[in-house]
Specification:
By secondary structure, the chain is α+β, with helices and mostly antiparallel strands. It contains six helices and twelve strands. Helix 1 crosses helix 3.
Amino acid sequence: MLAAHCPHIMHQSSGAIGRRQNYSLFLILLLTLAFLCLSGCLVAGEPAAAASSTTAVPAGLSVEDIIRNIEGALQKITDISCQVEFNQPKPDGSTARTFIEVQATMSGVLRMTFLEPPEFADVIYIFDKPSNKVTQYSPITGIAVVQYIDQVAKGIPIPDNIGGLFSLPSAAEYDLSVNGKDDSGRYVIVAAKGVNNSTNNNSKVNNADSKNNADNLLYHFWVDTREWLTTRICVYDQNGGTIYTISYNSIRRNGNLKESNLRRLPPRTEINDWT
């Protein structure tokens, strides 16, 4: 699937990188609103463990209340880091896991470093919206390819900041409803069902994968009511079977991240600037 194969393309020769740009779609999907990661096919994992000082979900909490609280939390964030976990089912019944370290400033500079599996370790993506550039680094070749975001986005809308990763999808494109809470009482689950995505040419999801049309999928967004951020996304097919999950673990806000550090590449990197 896309989430699993994208780093592999970075391990090819620079010529192959030039001929195939599908790897960049993964970056764009991850950076846009979290539900744009719908092109993957992952399987459910365990939710983040609740802290001892959990906050019970308020009774009568509406979608509007949740959105308002998330927006308020995001306004207080200048930078954020976390570990993103993808869990992908395999035909033999086992689960392939991918771990990515994500560091970002709300001004639009985001760095993704692949941690696992070992064959993807140290692959780096740098999304730099202020300069409208995407940098993709392969530790195998020691080459970093730089392109304009517009070159690789291919019409996919780009958010003003990366807060969308921790938000809910647009109510204009999805029917949102409160689906209950988890056993700890800390997480409220918001269900999202696509609205006319199959006929809406402006739909972000259509750019991801027509086979996984949002009209046929159900999304559960786990919102931490203590931090007021989305920390987990579960996706189900029309029969209720789990397709994938994305979990944001070890979230750290306002850690004084420096944009210069997020843009930094390993020593002796060969830079191929295609801008």
